[in-house]
């Protein structure tokens, strides 16, 4: 992390005050003022999917697989759906996993600081909007729609409630600089308003607060909250309407172990013969994106989403077979407990990785807007089309952009040096505000003093 001198930090605050504005302020009076004019929207759509018409993700916190699968509430929920026994987080700590779940990469993030990802880096939101599929994010105890602050504590007891690091959409400038998109990131209370009005979107990301998700409490608390939240919804006709639900965790708790977490699939689209079953195929947070892409026939991001396994029962109907990990090193050697170098890595900086704009998977191609933005800058990429993806101990090898390729293994100095200039050139075009936002985030993190 870069440590800025006090005077310089003060100048940065002054110089960027207009950019940051009320949206990132966390003082109570500022939040109340901003909330008074905040806009909330709940657009709906009805785009038919091949398997499901609605995808709901509920993310919980920091729990080893054995602890979560052994909790009575999660065990009871798993019996109503499919247990994903080989679902893997992609690194530590929390924030990069959230980013990866909608961005197809975490861009080297190795901390929980204030990050703003440049607007020329796309997310699943771009893919959904390209096909006019409605989306929304519901964040428990976020003070108002579109809030961009680092955190907001409980005003009564001082507990950690809402934290930016658990809100993936707001970390992408393509969302944070778009008023309409910000209006779709709402407090969880708005979920019930939308539910009653039958205005829920087709894609949802739901984050409990730091107590409910188990971060500051326990798996028992997280299990009780999840059961209380989901059980009534499983019989609610406004919610359970061709719906697939994924319950999962951002990362495991024990960093020295393989970063395996529990995944549970629920919903009225689960085939009757699979209720109570176990799926042991290899999945990761990138599978959340690939499954949505396969279901609605979306374009891809050209990143690790391309090769990620689609959930098996969905893939059986979309023509996406489960694939094995065939790269070197073997899957057993991959722990996914360290972040690889990247532009947002505080210790091991690297250039912005170029998407594989030539990638094709089961007929799905990269979003044309991504191809247009990136294709003229270089011919090398870290992303293949296999399920293999890198970790900190095994960084990706840069490969030629191709419709069929694999890029997992030890890093290649020669390949990296060959393409460094083109990748760095792309990095230099990112929104200047991102740098200032990151600097401000460092200060905000120190002031708030939240733990990882």
Automatic annotation (TrEMBL):
Record carries keyword Signal: yes
Any one biological process term the GO annotation gives: phospholipid catabolic process
Top-level taxon of origin: Eukaryota
Ranges for region Disordered: 400-428
Alphabetized Gene3D superfamilies for the sequence: Alkaline Phosphatase, subunit A
Record's keyword terms, sorted: Hydrolase, Signal
Cleavable signal peptide: 1-22
GO MF, one example: hydrolase activity, acting on ester bonds
Compositionally biased intervals (Low complexity): 401-425
One Pfam family per UniProt: Phosphoesterase
PANTHER family: ACID PHOSPHATASE PHOA, NON-SPECIFIC PHOSPHOLIPASE C4-RELATED
Protein's recorded name: Acid phosphatase
Provenance organism: Venturia inaequalis (Apple scab fungus)
Higher taxonomy: Eukaryota, Fungi, Dikarya, Ascomycota, Pezizomycotina
